[in-house]
Amino acid sequence: MSPIRQHEALAQAYDGITAVVTPLDDDGLQRATRCRGWLVADLLFHVLCDAQRALVALASPVPGPADVDDVSYWRAFTPGGDDEADAKHAWWARRSAAAFDRPTGLVRIWSDTAPAAARAAAAADPDGHVTTQGHVLRVPDLLATLTTEAVVHHLDLVVELPDAPQPAADPTRVAVTTMDGLLPDEAVRPAGWDDHEYLLKATGRVPLTDRDRFELGEAAGWFPLLG
């Protein structure tokens, strides 16, 4: 299996979200997602903030060394870590998305911002370091975190959009690699899970079944791996 170029995976992840939201009208953008309380437009606003954060981070190089990598970055986002802060962010995102005259206005901004973030990622020094959310990361590790979040939220977006495209293979591999890194060393994911099922269960979007718990054994207690 060929190695993944992180900037290409991020571009594909963002293109995948664009392919989901571009055909939607205002009604379609007000369908529910897997994120509690968020409509498609609300979640798109959240991912738009990520793309904007990527632009800021990539334009703000800092000296190393990194204090987290593409896996350890997520350990601060374990379920139940700060429920009050999560609730405040969810409400802020809803109100911010609702400030647009029409939900399709968000799609236009996303369609400008996401490709710009992907171009900035392609132009960034792969040996460089950047800062975001109080951490210093290597550029490829930052891009992997952004890709992982985009893929998981892509799956969140399409829960009521059965005809929408699924995330592409390379970004999905990045997200799966993240989840593998968060699992304890001795754990093996159940053989019956495909990649998307793994991501949904690893992030708590879909609960573990009794069979899952049997196959995971003690590792079932680690789920969800992140929120």
Account of the 3D structure:
This protein has one domain: dinb family like domain (Four Helix Bundle (Hemerythrin (Met), subunit A), Up-down Bundle), CATH 1.20.120.450. The protein starts with 5 loop residues before the first helix and ends in an 11-residue tail after the last helix. Helix content is 52%, strand content 4%. The chain is mainly α and 227 residues long. Strands 1-2-3 form a 3-stranded antiparallel sheet. It has 8 helices and 3 strands. Strand 2 (129-132) and strand 3 (135-138) form a beta hairpin. This is Mycothiol maleylpyruvate isomerase N-terminal domain-containing protein.
Layout of helices and strands:
Blueprint: H1 6-21, H2 40-58, E1 61-62, H3 83-98, H4 104-123, E2 129-132, E3 135-138, H5 139-157, H6 169-182, H7 195-202, H8 210-216
Antiparallel strand pairs: 1-2, 2-3
Helix pairs in contact: 1-4, 1-5, 1-6, 2-3, 2-4, 2-5, 5-6, 6-7
Protein name: Mycothiol maleylpyruvate isomerase N-terminal domain-containing protein
Keywords: Isomerase, Pyruvate
Domain Mycothiol-dependent maleylpyruvate isomerase metal-binding: 11-157
Task: Write a brief caption for the model.
52% of the residues lie in helices and 4% in strands. It has 227 residues and is mainly alpha-helical.
